[in-house]
Amino acid sequence: MKCLDCGYETDINQKIITCPRCGGLLEIKVKLKGFSFSNLKGRGVWRYKDAIPGNYSKIVSINEGNTPLIPSRIYKQTFYKFEGANPTGSFKDRGMTVAVSSAVNTGYKVVAAASTGNTAASAAAYASRAGLRIYLVLPKGKVALGKLAQSILYGATILEVNGSFDIAMASVMRLYKDLGIVYPLNSFNPWRLEGQKTIAYEIAEEIGEPDNVIVPVGNAGNIYAIWKGFTELQEAGVISKIPRMIGIQAEGAAPIAKAIEKGLNEPEFFENPETIATAIRIGKPVNWKKAIKAIRSSKGTALSVSDQEIIDAQKKLAREEGIGAEPASAAALAGYEKAINEGIVDKDQKNVLILTGHALKDPDAMLRLDARRILINPEHIENIVLGEINDNN
Ligand code: F0G
Q1: 223-257 residue pLDDT tens
Q2: Angle separating helix axes 92-105 and 118-130, nearest 10 degrees
Q3: Could you tell me if the CB of 231 is within 6 A of ligand 1?
Q4: Alpha carbon 208 to chain centroid distance?
Q5: Where N6-(pyridoxal phosphate)lysine occurs, residue numbers (predicted)?
Q6: How many Cβ atoms are within 10 Å of 315's Cβ, its own excluded?
Q7: How far apart are CA 11 and CA 351, in angstroms?
């Protein structure tokens, strides 16, 4: 393990979450030995257990991962990795199975997470499965209904703050770092990213290495996790190159995209992030250093898209591809189309868009879309349908 901030290095130790010397972000270095897809057994995240360091004598799993890679109907050679098919409806489950298993195997009884909603729902489910007490810190009034409902369903204690995710995140840091009383399930916990990197393993096993991978970015852990997965496979000679990582943010919450655009070494944080894509409504991504590393070293980039572009992309995904993704995930398609238009990516290359969460997470976003809902007299249903069929002929 190596600290991205001060360079401190230590042997792999599952008890360590942040740098013991400076509190910074730790990277877990993994060197695959004799790794081959043809030797693997099982499905989902734990199929790749040889690539996940640590002791997992007890695994807390609800069969996460093994999500569909769906070919686009519109763009040839483009695929959607539909993470909405995970047990709680987002990619977070991949990270939670590893982090919660680590918490159990290192003896923790209480876990906590700040969240824009999906981490909360996922953490709550895995904590229940493990029999752990869980505290969730949420930005009041800014969590999509489905995610809040899930957190209630799984029985978590919900602590609400007036303010953004970033304030919630800071208070979880206080519980973990200053008070040392909880195991943190946010993505600054590098063990979570060891689970999330299996997105890359699954893609590589199914279609080899893509040219570009397009990922919505919020707290900025996932883009790094996916890059890390591809990097490990490339270093082991399993794939021949690392795809370019293209991060997509919402215009109102775009510190990483702005930093890449302006060539800054450190992002300028957004004090009051705002976007319809509440999952990625984050102004101070804790993993910014990891995300910038993944983007720069893969020769990728980061872009921002407007709320209107996100809404249009969500509709297009649903109404032209038949895929229901939440707004933050649809940002990947909005960003992909922008990248095509700006000549940043070639639509005829092999490209994968990560659709991070299910449409059902955010019913309000769906209900705001234009709908054809007509109150009818059931006796005269043919008046409408016949009339329209005739008009179309
Ligand atoms: N897409 C969805 C649906 C998300 O829920 C998130 C993050 C992201 C993308 C961005 O991933 O943070 O690794 O860059 N949601 C977190 C949460 C912040 O609390 O659920 P990231």
Answers
A1: 999 999 999 999 999 999 999 999 999 999 999 99
A2: 40
A3: no
A4: 21
A5: 92
A6: 14
A7: 36
Q: Please report the atom of ligand 1 found closest to the CA of residue 116.
A: 19
Helix, coil or strand: residue 341: helix
Give the number of the atom of ligand 1 that is nearest the alpha carbon of residue 291.
Answer: 14
Sheet holding 133-139, edge to edge: 157-161, 133-139, 110-114, 183-184
Look up residue 73 and give its two tokens: 């109907």
* pTM, entire model: 0.98
Tell me, letter by letter, the H, E, C secondary structure of 157-201.
Answer: EEEEECCCHHHHHHHHHHHHHHCCCCEECCCCCHHHHHHHCHHHH
Answer whether 357 contacts ligand 1 (Cβ < 6 A): yes
3-state secondary structure (DSSP) of residue 129: helix
Architecture of domain 1-90+190-392 in CATH? 3-Layer(aba) Sandwich (3.40)
Amino acid identity of residue 156, one-letter, is A
Closest CA to 64 of 37, 95, 101: 95
pLDDT in tens, 311-351: 999 999 999 999 999 999 999 999 999 999 999 999 999 99
| In the chain, domain spans | 1-90+190-392
Q: Whose CA is nearest to atom 19 of ligand 1?
A: 115
Give SS3 for 114.
strand
